[in-house]
Design brief:
- The protein is of the alpha+beta class and 478 residues long.
- It has 2 domains: 30 residues; 319 residues, Outer membrane efflux proteins (OEP), CATH 1.20.1600.
- It contains 10 helices and 10 strands.
- The strands form 4 sheets. The chain has a 4-stranded antiparallel β-sheet, with helices on one face. The chain has a two-stranded parallel sheet with strand order 1-6. A two-stranded antiparallel ribbon has the order 3-4.
- Helix 4 runs antiparallel to helix 5, helix 4 packs antiparallel against helix 7 and helix 4 runs antiparallel to helix 10.
- It is elongated and about 180 Å long.
Length: 478
């Protein structure tokens, strides 16, 4: 019995888990944070900017490595036939010779006008600037995703409002159809309400299309397949009543310290300044220290080993008492052997150390041209930096004006909706009581519907304008 209970419990737990997973997949609710993170992970521009940053990092590391000594090895094998130079004796021989040579050399630059040091600093600044460029790409994508996210929420709210309006019109149509059957109203009143209901249905169709278009734009920004069943987490109601305290000047000062675009422009300018110093370093002499170790081998190399001395009768003779007597000479006997590969490798080894100074005297003014180009690049980056700051200040001022306008418009529409709601309630009571006409009722309803839609748009517009100002200050946007 206990075993059956345990099995039953496991089966129920598995079923509940599958149900919960199915519900989670069916709802497919996305948060603003998840949308932003998904977009950053998939967006092409962000990914390309990240690759550029990685390339700048490689250049920075290589610039540091360029200050280290180099070390290179060489090896060569060959065959000489006919009359050639014996690499072992440097004398002419007429035979086939197998030869080999090996070398190891190293060098380090001791001074070159601080070109290497300034190149390291330039590449470090370029790398830091590329990180800011990447962050700017992420920030731009983030604000666009927030805009699309708010557009989906706004479209969804508008669609819900239109459904409510259509439901109200349908109830009135149903009520008037019953009264018309009883002859209690004029047929024109029923026709007016049917026309209004049809108009509400058309508005729903347009709003549904707008909602799906907003979802499509959001999916495109996230670089994910379009899913018409996605739903978004609603924003906290407190986001709609926030009062923005910071002035444009405070926002601008904060942006100068936090905004990635400003940091990137400043770092690019500093990198260009180091680029001028790198170019000027080419006018200075270059002092380098070099060393090498080399050895060689030849199969023609031989070594003679003394064996003994023997008496050898020569062809010469002397006359002693009228008789020719041959001359006997001492002859040293040697054994000739090939010198082994390892012995030649050790015996032929030689090394060298040199200190070299290269002084640029005339190179067709190439270095002067490089300096001028580097100076022009610096001026260009300086102009970009100044213009970026000016445009940033102008954008912040315009964004603050838009935010204040959106705030005032939202507050005004709150009052307008409240006023039109009272007017509609009164018109509805009179119309239902039969003392009001359809024209007054529809006028009051359309005024309320229009102002309610405007309020929804203004509400999300205010949130967006506030997020833009947070964006300029480098604040968390979700």
């Amino acid at each position: 019995m206990k075993t059956n209970k345990i099995i039953s419990t496991i089966i129920i737990a598995v079923c509940l888990n599958n149900i919960l997973q199915a519900q989670d997949k069916s709802t497919n609710t996305l948060t603003l944070k998840l949308c932003v993170e998904t977009g950053i992970a998939n967006n092409l521009q962000v990914l390309q900017s990240d690759l550029q940053m990685q390339g700048a990092q490689v250049n920075y590391k290589q610039a540091k490595m360029n200050m280290l000594p180099d070390l290179n090895g060489s090896a060569g094998h060959g065959i000489n036939q006919g009359r050639s130079i014996d690499p072992f004796t440097n004398s002419y021989i007429n035979q086939q010779v197998n030869f080999a040579s090996y070398g190891l050399n190293s060098g380090v630059t001791l001074f070159n006008g601080f070109t290497l040091q300034n190149s390291v600093k330039q590449n470090r600044l370029t790398y830091e600037a590329s990180k800011m460029d990447l962050q700017q790409q992420k920030d731009n994508l983030t604000i666009n995703i927030i805009l699309a996210y708010l557009q989906v929420l706004s479209s969804d709210d508008i669609l819900s409002q239109l459904h409510n309006q259509a439901d109200l019109s349908k109830k009135q149509v149903d009520r008037l159809e019953q009264l018309n059957k009883e002859g209690a109203i004029s047929p024109s009143q029923l026709s007016d309400l049917k026309g209004q209901y049809a108009n509400d249905q058309l508005n729903i169709i347009s709003a549904q299309n707008g909602l799906e278009s907003a979802k499509l734009i959001l999916c495109q920004l996230m670089n994910t397949p379009y899913d018409r069943n996605i739903s978004l987490e609603r924003l906290d109601a407190a986001a709609f009543v926030v009062k923005y305290e910071n002035t444009p000047d405070k926002i601008y000062q904060a942006a100068l310290q936090q905004f990635a675009l400003i940091k990137a422009a400043d770092l690019h300018k500093q990198s260009a300044e180091k680029g001028v110093q790198v170019a000027r370093g080419g006018l200075f002499p270059t002092l380098s220290l070099n060393g090498s170790v080399n050895t060689s081998y030849s199969n023609a190399a031989t070594a003679s080993t003394f064996l003994n001395t023997t008496d050898v009768t020569s062809s010469d003779y002397v006359i002693v008492n009228g008789t020719q007597s041959p001359v006997i000479r001492k002859q040293s006997n040697f054994k000739t052997d090939k010198i082994s590969y390892s012995d030649q490798f050790n015996n032929n080894r030689f090394s060298s150390v040199s200190l070299n100074l290269r002084v640029p005297i005339f190179n067709s003014f190439q270095q002067r041209s490089r300096i001028k180009l580097a100076q022009l690049n610096l001026k260009n980056n300086d102009l970009i930096f100044k213009t970026t700051k000016t445009q940033l200040q102008q954008s912040i001022e315009q964004a603050h004006i838009n935010m204040m306008t959106a705030s005032d418009r939202y507050k005004t529409l709150l009052d307008q909706v409240a006023a039109f709601r009272e007017s509609f309630n009164a018109a509805e009571i009179r119309f239902n009581a039969g003392v009001g006409n359809s024209i007054d009722y529809l006028t009051a309803k359309n005024n309320l519907d229009r102002s309610t839609i405007n309020l929804i748009n203004a509400k999300y517009d205010f949130v967006l304008r506030s997020k833009v100002l947070d964006y300029y200050q480098g604040k968390q946007l979700w």
